[in-house]
Amino acid sequence: MPLLLRQPLASTSLDAHGERLTRDDLFELFKALPEEMVINDQHDLTLPSAAIARNLQFVELHAGEWAIVGDVTVHDAELLKLRGGFSMAWLAATYTTKPDRDPDIQVLFSPRLFDKDIVLALVRLSDEQVNIVGRELKQKGLDPEAILIIQFVALAAVSGFIGKPASDAYDKLLRRLAKVKDDLRSPANTPPILQFFVPRHLNPYRADIIVELMPEHMEHLRVGALSFQDAIDTARLVPFTEEAKKIVIKAVGDPPTWRLSRYEKASGLLVRI
After folding, report:
1. Residues linked to residue 168 through DSSP beta bridges, in sequence order
2. I need a surface site. Which of 20, 86, 107, 137 has the fewest CB within 10 A?
3. DSSP conformational letter for 41
4. Taking the CB of residue 267, how many other CB atoms lie within 10 A of it?
5. pLDDT (0 to 100) of residue 42
6. Following CA atoms 81, 84, 85, 86 in sequence, which dihedral angle do they give, to the nearest 10 degrees?
7. Cβ-based neighbour number of residue 253 at 10 Å
8. What domain of life (predicted)?
9. What ranges do the domains of the chain cover?
């Protein structure tokens, strides 16, 4: 696989949207980055990783222009050529009604497409049993997809979607998510997508599981016509020997049913079903 040395991943220069990070903002972002950074296609968790960046450094490219650079191992050169290079995404502002309590569910959203009031309405559904937190997902240098990510942080939150929930916040959350398509800040080429992210340590299949639905599927999920447990268990169709690191399950058809869409091996190879 090709190795590209000292590739700029983000900088203080003006991006395609007329936005610019200050040196201090960029440095704070740099300090929060992991040692290895996976680069996904269009920052979509369900799409394959195109590359991985290592040896990240904060450097001055030119007088007054600073950048985060890294050595990038390319998994899919054609994809990077099609996209025109790299861009970065990072978590910014946090919205919560319980600042002294860890989140059970995080809702990640692009402030370019979703007004924060939409997410604040979800955050306010929190109660004593479940804490829902909103996080801005900043994306530099591209037009993001209209994706709302519902990320499970605690096992109890996953259980709330599987069994009889201890809180009616789950029912209210599904009702509110059904209306997301009416809440876009600006028109998008495709309808908004809802991605429920179940990390590997919260499921029995040793892989990150992403369950993808459309807003119109929320009522099916709420009344039990679609089972979230069945969605997670669809991951069993991936052979254990494949050592998948990411499995994507989608709701398809009318009435909707679960389908194994694709999975990504530890090697980075994408297997489409």
Report:
1. none
2. 20
3. G
4. 9
5. 60
6. -130
7. 9
8. Bacteria
9. 3-87, 91-272
- CA-wise closest residue to 273 among 74, 244, 203: 244
CA distance 242 to 264: 9
**Dihedral angle computed from the Cα positions of residues 118, 130, 153 and 228, in that order, rounded to the nearest 10 degrees:** -80
Tokens coding 100: 């002294």
Alpha-carbon separation of residue 84 from 30, 50, 67, 77 (angstroms): 22, 12, 18, 10
For residues 217 and 142, the model is more confident at 217
Tokens standing for residue 78: 């054609």
Q: What is the mean pLDDT of residues 43-72?
A: 82
Q: What distance in Å separates the CA atoms of residue 119 and residue 132, rounded to the nearest whole number?
A: 10
Residue 53 tokens read as 């960046």
How crowded is residue 219: how many other Cβ atoms within 10 Å of its Cβ?
14
- The Cα-based distances of 152 to 200, 216, 252 in angstroms read 11, 21, 22
